[in-house]
């Protein structure tokens, strides 16, 4: 948000502070109505202390709390908001209906004991979207207004006490605010015990001396000239001032000075009241810190970074001063969190932040953009210099991190975007660098990618495919093809593997490697998995209807579905029941490497399926993180040898040894082996020689539609 709160600290009275706060709300939110309200002593009404309509000050009103959104806000610890139809939600609040209010946001003002004392509210006639940034800004503003309200309440309490008791001396002695009384020549006459406590001086040390004995030296002569000028013209002064305690410590105080005059109008005394606002100043410092910096690493946060980027874009428009933006993402950081815990993950992020700080100049802007993402604005550098800097960053970040006995290996992907005329906002600048980073992450051989038209084209195609895939899944416009799996003893088809296929009317054929990756990235994989499962089981029922009742079906499932889909086992069992397919005739296939990385989550679900009779297959064995111990840990019915091994079986002795050994071990563990990618009779013969149980590949058939799958059954199983 563009608004700064600095001006609030310069106000000289509560009315001015409240009006300024509402003016800020008018500028940031464009609210129809907004007000600062004080809770009455019974807690039943709000009495407004400042009230705006369309940015114009209005007479104050009283607002009953019962059955209103303000009642909810008073009870809430956080920002309370309703983005639309708030009047319908609170039908008994007639004011909302009369004013045509649709949206509401409010924050409770609280005293030091966290008890409610008032409320800050904005009302809108049009529906709103209260983003996290807007909510935080509104809450930060309320924090400052609450401090002012607390001070006003303290002052009110003190004034009532004076009026009711008329015991000025008791008030003077027992006040928690420091009080100093000087004569007309500004020599100290009296100070109260609170003053002695705050400053460390005894009254006897101060009487007859000027208040300048407390001066910190931080304020120049003009500061005091303005103070005395206001005292002379208005009879009071209020502001922040730094003074010095007896022990030499400088501290901030909020000071209020009032001129006391005798009956003939001559100045008789000056009365000064102050309170130590060191704690308030520390809260202000923290507020400013969190407004611009990310607490874990101390780097700029996203909002602050984007503001700095906007400044450089404006500078570029006038001076053509070059700048480049780097978007860095740690690879497989989630694995570090999952394996070692978030505490270690935080230490890794702090270590990376320090390495980045040591890799850039002080003029560059560095932020933790979010999670394991970092952004760097490099100014006044050529593209060649920026690329050199990126290489340096890459080499530093990718050095192992030693944490106690842990030695954590790191890698990262970096996207670069150089500023040009097409960069019209910070959002576009960062977005393009992010696209380049994603291209680097997808590339197996590149860790650094510079944004280009090609990178943008890849991104735009991804977005296009995402939207088309979502629409196609909703409309059941994808197809499923079936590749037979052959029993190597009988030579008959024992089951089919269901494989998604997509032909778009505009784009033509989109291959599975591309659209499955899109589904994974944009959260459509569960929809895709359910579509294939239901279509495959429906087609299996049709196959059974042709008399081939022993044929089974294999369906691939992503680990994402098991990790994030609610009740994944129930979804599968329900589909089996819907299509009247025995559980034993369905095989759920997951990749071996995925099942390792998500072992606890995925295996629990797979074991539940096996308990109901569903078969489980590990796909792509012999690749990724294969280990023999994993064959013992995972309860699988089938192991699928990846085609990259199958197609080397005639030429590579090492591949032959691995395949032969795996078939023997799996058989001993009561598992069966399926070899994928069989393309020649010689490969098939070698697999049969090793005792492989099943074969799958183009030697028998490519994936085919349902009608051709039935033709294959006529060919192989009759």
Task: List the main descriptive attributes of the protein structure presented here.
718 residues; Beta-Lactamase; Alpha-Beta Plaits; 8-stranded mixed β-barrel; 7-stranded antiparallel β-sheet; 45% helix; elongated
Main beta-sheet strand count, sense and barrel state: 8 strands, mixed, barrel
Spatially, the strands of the biggest sheet line up as 20-21-23-24-25-26-27-28
Radius of gyration: 36 Å
Note the beta-strand portion. 15-25%
In the CATH hierarchy, the architecture of the largest domain is: Alpha-Beta Barrel
* Quaternary structure type: single chain
User: Structural class, please?
Assistant: alpha+beta
**Total discrete domains:** 4
Write down how many β-strands occur, each being a DSSP E stretch of 2 or more residues: 28
CATH class of the largest domain: Alpha Beta
CATH fold-level topology of the largest domain: TIM Barrel
How would you characterize the overall build of this protein?
By secondary structure, the chain is α+β, with helices and mostly antiparallel strands. It has four domains: 6-147, GAF domain (Beta-Lactamase), CATH 3.30.450.40; 167-282, Beta-Lactamase; 296-451, Alpha-Beta Plaits; 464-716, EAL domain (TIM Barrel), CATH 3.20.20. The protein is built from 27 helices and 28 strands. It has an eight-stranded mixed beta barrel, surrounded by four helices. Helix 15 (426-442) crosses helix 16 (453-474). The chain is elongated, with a radius of gyration of 36 Å.
């Amino acid at each position: 948000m563009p608004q700064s709160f600095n001006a609030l600290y310069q106000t000289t009275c509560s009315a001015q502070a409240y009006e300024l706060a509402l003016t800020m709300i008018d500028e940031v939110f464009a609210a129809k109505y907004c007000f600062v309200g004080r809770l009455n002593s019974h807690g039943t009404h709000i009495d407004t202390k400042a009230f705006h309509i369309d940015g114009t000050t209005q007479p104050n009103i009283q607002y009953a709390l019962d059955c209103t959104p303000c009642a909810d806000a008073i009870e809430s610890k956080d920002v309370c908001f309703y983005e639309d139809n708030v009047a319908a939600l609170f039908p008994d609040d007639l004011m909302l209906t009369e004013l045509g209010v649709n949206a509401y946001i409010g924050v409770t003002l609280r005293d030091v004991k966290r008890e409610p004392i008032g409320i800050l509210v904005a009302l809108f006639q049009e529906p709103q979207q209260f983003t996290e940034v807007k909510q935080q800004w509104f809450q930060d503003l309320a924090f400052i207004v609450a401090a002012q309200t607390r001070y006003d309440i303290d002052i009110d309490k003190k004034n009532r006490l004076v009026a009711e008791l008329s015991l000025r001396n008791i008030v003077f002695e027992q006040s928690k605010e420091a009080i100093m009384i000087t004569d007309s020549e500004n020599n100290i006459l009296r100070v109260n015990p609170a003053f002695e406590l705050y400053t460390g001086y005894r009254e006897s040390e101060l009487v007859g001396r000027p208040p300048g004995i407390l001066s910190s030296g931080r304020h120049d002569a003009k500061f005091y000239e303005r103070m005395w000028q206001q005292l002379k013209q208005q009879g009071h002064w209020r502001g922040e001032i730094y003074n010095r305690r007896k022990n030499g410590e400088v501290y901030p105080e909020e000071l209020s000075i009032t001129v006391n005059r005798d009956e003939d109008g001559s100045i008789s005394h000056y009365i000064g009241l102050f309170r130590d606002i060191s704690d308030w100043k520390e809260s202000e410092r923290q507020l400013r810190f969190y407004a611009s910096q990310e607490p874990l690493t101390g780097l700029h946060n996203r909002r602050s970074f984007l503001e700095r980027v906007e400044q450089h874009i404006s500078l570029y428009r006038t001076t053509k001063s070059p700048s480049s933006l780097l978007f860095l993402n740690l690879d497989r950081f989630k694995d570090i969190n999952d394996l070692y815990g978030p505490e270690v993950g935080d230490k890794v992020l702090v270590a990376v932040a320090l390495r980045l700080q040591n890799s850039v100049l002080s003029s560059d802007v560095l932020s933790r953009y979010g999670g394991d993402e970092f952004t760097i604005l490099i100014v006044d550098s050529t593209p060649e210099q920026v690329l050199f800097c990126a290489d340096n960053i890459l080499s530093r970040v990718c050095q192992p991190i030693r944490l106690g006995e842990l030695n954590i290996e790191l890698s990262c992907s970096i996207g670069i975007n150089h500023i040009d005329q097409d960069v019209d906002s910070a959002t576009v600048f960062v977005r393009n660098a992010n696209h380049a980073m994603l291209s680097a992450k997808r590339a197996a051989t590149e860790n650094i990618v510079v944004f280009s038209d090609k990178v943008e084209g890849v991104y735009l195609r991804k977005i296009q495919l995402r939207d088309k895939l979502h629409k196609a899944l909703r409309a059941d416009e994808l197809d499923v093809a079936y590749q037979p799996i052959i029993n190597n003893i009988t030579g008959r088809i024992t089951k089919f593997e269901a494989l998604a296929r997509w032909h778009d009317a505009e784009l033509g054929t989109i291959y599975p490697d591309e659209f499955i990756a899109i589904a994974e990235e944009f959260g459509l994989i569960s929809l895709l998995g359910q579509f294939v499962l239901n279509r495959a089981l429906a087609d299996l029922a049709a196959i059974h209807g042709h008399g081939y009742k022993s044929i089974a079906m294999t369906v691939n499932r992503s680990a994402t579905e098991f990790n994030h889909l609610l009740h994944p086992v129930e979804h599968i069992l329900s589909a089996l029941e819907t299509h009247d397919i025995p559980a034993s005739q369905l095989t759920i296939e997951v990749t071996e490497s995925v099942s390792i990385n998500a072992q606890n989550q995925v295996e629990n679900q797979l074991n539940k399926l096996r308990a109901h009779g569903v078969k489980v297959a590990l796909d792509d064995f012999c690749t990724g993180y294969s280990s023999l111990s994993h064959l013992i840990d995972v309860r699988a019915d089938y192991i699928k040898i990846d085609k990259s091994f199958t197609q080397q079986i005639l030429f590579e002795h090492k591949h032959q040894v691995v395949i032969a050994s795996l078939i023997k071990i799996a058989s001993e563990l009561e598992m069966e082996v399926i070899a994928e990618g069989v393309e020649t009779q010689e490969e098939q013969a070698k697999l049969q020689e090793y005792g492989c149980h099943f074969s799958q590949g183009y030697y028998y058939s490519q994936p085919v539609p349902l009608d051709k799958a039935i033709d294959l059954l006529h060919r192989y199983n009759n």
